[in-house]
Amino acid sequence: MIFMLSQNPTCNTSPSLCHQYRFQVGDRVETYNHCKGIVVRVDADESGIFIVLRLDTLYGEFAYDPYDLKRIQ
Q1: Domains of the chain (ranges plus CATH)?
Q2: Over 90: is that where the pLDDT of 73 sits?
Q3: What is the pLDDT of residues 9-63, one digit of tens each?
């Protein structure tokens, strides 16, 4: 099950803007609402780039806008 969650849905994601938000499979990240998880896939569709996570506390995979995530140690 995949859900598209975005803190700022009006934000236009382009490859040039996303350059500073590069994520790779295996990166540990924290969402804008402080959920932690691991990147399982970086994908794109007609709306732009999105990051698929497997969160530590919830079952399933969830898609996020790159601007809603930050990389953690």
Answers
A1: 17-71 (2.30.30.30)
A2: no
A3: 444 444 444 444 589 999 999 999 999 999 999 998 888 899 999 999 999 999 9
The encoded tokens of residue 43 equal 């994908």
Classify residue 26 as left (phi > 0), alpha (psi -120 to 50) or beta: left
**CA-to-CA dists, residue 69 to 35, 45, angstroms:** 10, 18
E runs forming strands in the chain: 4-5, 28-31, 36-45, 48-55, 61-64, 69-71
Structure tokens at 46: 């007609």
